[in-house]
Write a structure and sequence with these properties.
Layout lengths: L1 E13 L2 E7 L10 E4 L11 E4 L2 E3 L2 E7 L3 H7 L6 E8 L10 E6 L3 H13 L4 E7 L8 H7 L2 E6 L9 H5 L9 E5 L2 H10 L5 E4 L15 E4 L2 E4 H4 L2 E3 L3 E2 L3
Parallel strand pairs: 8-9, 8-11, 9-10, 11-12
Antiparallel strand pairs: 1-2, 1-7, 2-6, 3-4, 3-7, 5-6, 12-15, 13-14, 13-16
The structure holds flavin-adenine dinucleotide and FE2/S2 (inorganic) cluster.
The site of FE2/S2 (inorganic) cluster has 12 residues, from helix 6.
């Protein structure tokens, strides 16, 4: 579906992370699904940018975007009342499992996991939200998370009492108290998480892969259970055990 929508609300979470809320009725996105956001009308940058659903409540869709390059910078210049062209939702997304869950967000992994957290909360599934970033300033939406999670743990690599990476923080959690885990963050975080070989299924939201986001470039291909899969078409959510990060 292609839709031109108006930006109803713009929120700055920190100096390089912002949210755009739009009114988009008639969709029912799943956690992990994403939209292709048209950056502008010119050919430079030509590609649309894949951005996950961070929230969808009462027909209001929230996209949380971190400025990393030209496309996201142009998007950051949009203001309330401006138009936004969205294509999607894309990706297979994730069907909800009503099992006690551990959500592990590293850095920018917060956006799709916040949407999953909303769904779990609505379905009254007990869950813990573990969220780690490099600095305190990078920790966004702490209050929103704390309101809906049964337990929330925030860690940063650079300051505070809980000075550690999100993967090392898992070592302090009784993992056997959970039935399932979901993780989203930089590729390196997923690699380290895989090495922990947790005794429960872990579903990885793979976003840290660069490409067209629409099935054309194969730039997002990963080796999954012995076969090449495209993150944008076949994912972006995969069982972490099945991903071969060395290929
Ligand atoms: C399925 C999916 C969902 C995503 N959801 C979100 C989201 O909710 N919010 C959000 O802020 N971002 C999300 N991203 C990442 C986002 O699409 C990119 O950051 C964006 O396309 C960068 O565009 P740009 O023009 O600003 O940067 P570019 O100028 O294209 O690139 C700038 C730098 O960032 C690197 N880069 C670009 N894209 C990625 C990427 N995906 N992973 C790692 N490095 C990258 C480039 O290699 C380059 O070094 C998602 C990506 C995918 C694949
Ligand atoms: S990002 Fe181009 S095929 Fe998936």
């Amino acid at each position: 579906m292609i839709k031109r929508v108006k930006i109803k609300r713009k929120i700055w979470y920190n100096k390089d992370t912002f949210g755009l809320e739009v009114y988009f009725p008639g969709i029912n996105p799943l956690p992990g699904q994403f939209f292709q956001v048209r950056v502008g009308d010119s050919l430079d940058p030509f590609l649309n940018r894949p951005i996950s659903v961070a929230s969808y409540i009462r027909n209001r869709l929230l996209l949380i975007i971190r400025i990393v390059g030209k496309g996201t910078r142009i998007l950051s210049e949009k203001e309330e009342g401006d138009d936004l062209l969205l294509l999607g939702p894309f990706g297979k997304g994730l069907r909800l499992k009503k099992k006690k869950s551990l959500l592990i967000a590293g850095g920018f992994g917060i956006a799709p996991l916040y949407f999953l957290a909303q769904k779990l909360f609505k379905s009254r599934v007990n869950f813990t939200f573990l969220y780690g970033t490099k600095t305190q300033d990078d920790l966004i939406m702490k209050q929103d998370i704390s309101k809906i999670a049964n337990r929330s743990i925030f860690v940063t690599e650079s300051s505070g009492t809980k000075k550690m990476t999100v993967v090392s923080a898992i070592k302090n959690i009784d993992i056997n108290a959970y039935k399932i885990a979901y993780a989203c963050g930089p590729k390196l975080m997923l690699v380290e998480l895989q090495k922990l070989n947790l005794p429960i299924p872990v579903y990885a939201f793979c976003e840290d892969f660069f490409g067209c986001g629409c099935g054309l470039c194969l730039g997002c291909a990963i080796m999954y259970k012995g076969e090449y899969k495209r993150i944008c078409e076949d994912g972006p959510v995969f069982d972490l055990r099945g991903i071969d990060f060395n290929v």
